[in-house]
Design brief:
The complex is a heterodimer of chains A (227) and B (271). Chain A starts with 8 loop residues before the first helix and ends with a helix. Chain A is 41% helix and 24% strand. In chain A, helix 4 (158-168) crosses helix 5 (176-191). In chain A, the strands form two sheets. Chain A has a five-stranded antiparallel sheet with strand order 8-1-2-9-10. In chain A, strands 3-4-5-6-7 form a five-stranded antiparallel sheet. With 227 residues, chain A is α+β, with helices and mostly antiparallel strands. Chain A has six helices and ten strands. Chain A has a single domain, classed as Aminohydrolase, N-terminal nucleophile (Ntn) domain (Glutamine Phosphoribosylpyrophosphate, subunit 1, domain 1), CATH 3.60.20.10. Chain B has 271 residues and is α+β, with helices and mostly antiparallel strands. Chain B has a single domain (12-23, 48-269), classed as Glutamine Phosphoribosylpyrophosphate, subunit 1, domain 1 (4-Layer Sandwich), CATH 3.60.20.10. Chain B is built from seven helices and 15 strands. In chain B, strand 11 (164-170) and strand 12 (176-179) form a beta hairpin. In chain B, helix 5 (189-199) crosses helix 6. Classes of the chains: A alpha+beta (227), B alpha+beta (271). At the A-B interface, strand 3 and helix 2 of A face helix 1 and helix 2 of B.
């Protein structure tokens, strides 16, 4: 009879974390940044149809770095959670905080109970009503959750992005144009090359819009904004 | 997808049926019903509020959809301000006749359904696809029909591929039929249809279509007790929406009031 071998919980968690980090490090990076009218989301994404940024509800967006299939499952689960809540109660009762908590629970449970952890890092953003604060939550592969202000970065080079933005993002939220320029230069600084606008996915939660605040910013518009 | 068992796919309605059947209108069981002495038909114990006449009419470039404001409860008036025309998304609307509670719930569910699909798939359903989905939802409501809770809609949408407005009507089994010009349902539906038959022509202007729709509701209110006409004392008028290539828009109440003022004037003069 083969002996059941013992692995200490510390060792197991460490191995899992290393595995997940390795997977996420391969993923390209995403930035979320508060600007005058809301929250801007910018992703390094060469595909024009496979999105890394997605609408969840009226004022909530989700973006994810890491394994696409796993991110897609989390995205669907988020939309179902939000739509169910909005249908059962009312549209204003759907909040980023409850969604981020749900994601944190799911990722945490999978990390500790399954053999393979999810290789994703996600970011939930909500634009506040006029006069109310925006919310941004970064959720890690192990379910740990961080409340961010001003800007947030996820993906392979998140730390480098954070320090780049820390030096340059000061005080009041900038206008859309300045925010977009800062985000693209941050992405370019970590890839050390000029990124074509076709390879950048841009979306915004714009509080000036009525109803659903999420909108994608097409290449034609971003070119105009950056010129 | 068959690879993932029990995946509800992109339909919110299917997701609810699977996860929360208690929230689907037809998923409930109502054991408290009385049977009529003379037959097997089951009816709810109390009379429920019912919405009455709604209609849709095509014009050059779109569709007008309108409805009166009355809700009846047996021979009582349950409400004078009920709005029976619902915006579903940017390019479609529905109007409902039948038991008010389930009607409103069905409209809300259908709104969520279309938005849910759009978010999950990244594209909107086609006009045809939306109309078919509504048919399936009405079919799922069939058990409730036997308890006297009928939900019957008219659905209008602007088909961006074909570049035209379209009108769909339904029967209680979920059967879906497309109307080429106009349609009306509800207790005053027949009277409204008669009016529209008299005045309808192909390629009406937007203003004419609205005038005919409001006139048809007015005539229906004169001949049918369930339908409410313009209430000049309280200032309550039927509601209408226009669906066109530019999207959906509400017809403002002051505008409807002016159209009615002209119609009533003409009637006073006997023309």
């Amino acid at each position: 009879m083969p002996l059941p071998y013992y692995v200490s919980p510390e060792q197991m968690m460490q191995d899992k974390a290393e595995y997940a980090k390795k997977g996420i490090a391969k993923g390209r990076s995403i930035i979320a940044m508060e600007y005058e009218q809301g929250v801007l989301l910018v992703a390094d994404n060469p595909s024009a149809s496979l999105y890394k940024i997605s609408e969840i509800y009226d004022s909530i967006a989700l973006s994810g770095a890491g394994k696409y299939s796993e991110f897609e499952n989390l995205r669907k689960a988020g939309i179902r959670h939000a739509d169910l809540k909005g249908f059962m109660y009312s549209r204003e009762d759907v909040t980023a905080r409850s969604l981020a908590n749900g994601y944190s629970q799911t990722l945490g449970t999978i990390f500790s109970q399954e053999i393979k952890p999810l290789e994703v890092e996600i970011l939930v953003a909500q634009v506040g009503e006029p006069g109310r604060q925006n919310e941004m939550y970064r959720i890690s592969f192990d379910g740990s959750i961080f409340d961010e202000r001003g800007y947030a970065a996820i993906g392979g080079k998140a730390d480098a992005l954070q320090s780049f933005l820390k030096e340059r993002y000061k005080g009041e939220p900038p206008a859309l144009k300045a925010a977009l320029a800062l985000c693209t230069s941050a992405l370019e600084s970590i890839t050390n090359q000029k990124l074509p606008l076709e390879g950048i996915e841009i979306a915004a939660l714009d509080r000036t819009r009525a109803g659903r605040k999420f909108r994608r910013i097409p290449v034609s518009e971003s070119r105009q904004l950056l010129s | 997808m068959p690879l993932i068992p029990d995946d509800p796919g992109s339909s919110f309605f299917d997701y609810l049926m699977q996860q929360r059947p208690d929230l689907v209108p037809s998923g409930r069981v109502w054991p408290v019903v009385s049977s009529l002495p003379d037959g097997n038909r089951m009816t709810p114990l109390q009379p429920l509020p019912h919405g009455t006449t709604v209609l849709a009419i095509k014009y050059r470039g779109g569709v007008v959809i309108a409805g009166d404001r009355r809700a009846t409860e047996g021979y009582q008036i349950a409400g004078r301000r009920m709005d029976k025309v619902f915006k579903i998304d940017e390019h479609s609307a529905m109007a409902i006749a039948g038991a008010a509670g389930p009607c409103i719930e069905m409209a809300k569910l259908f709104q969520t359904e279309l938005e849910h699909y759009e978010k999950l798939e990244g594209v909107q359903l086609s006009c045809e696809g939306k109309a078919n989905k509504l048919g399936q939802m009405i079919k799922a409501n069939l058990p409730m029909v036997f308890q006297g809770l009928v939900v019957l809609p008219i659905y209008v949408g602007y088909d961006q591929k074909r570049d035209e407005g379209r009108i769909f009507k339904y029967d209680i089994t979920g059967g879906r039929y497309e109307e080429s010009d106009y349609h009306a349902i509800g207790s005053g539906g027949k009277d409204a249809r008669n009016s529209m038959r008299e005045y309808f022509r192909k390629d009406l202007s937007e203003a004419d279509a609205l005038r005919i729709a409001l006139l048809a509701l007015y005539n229906a209110a004169e001949d049918d007790v369930g339908t409410g006409g313009p209430d000049l004392v309280r200032g309550i008028y039927p509601t209408a929406k226009q669906v066109s290539a530019a999207g959906i828009k509400d017809v403002e109440e002051p505008h409807i009031a002016t159209v009615y003022a002209t119609l009533i004037d003409a009637r006073k003069k006997g023309t």
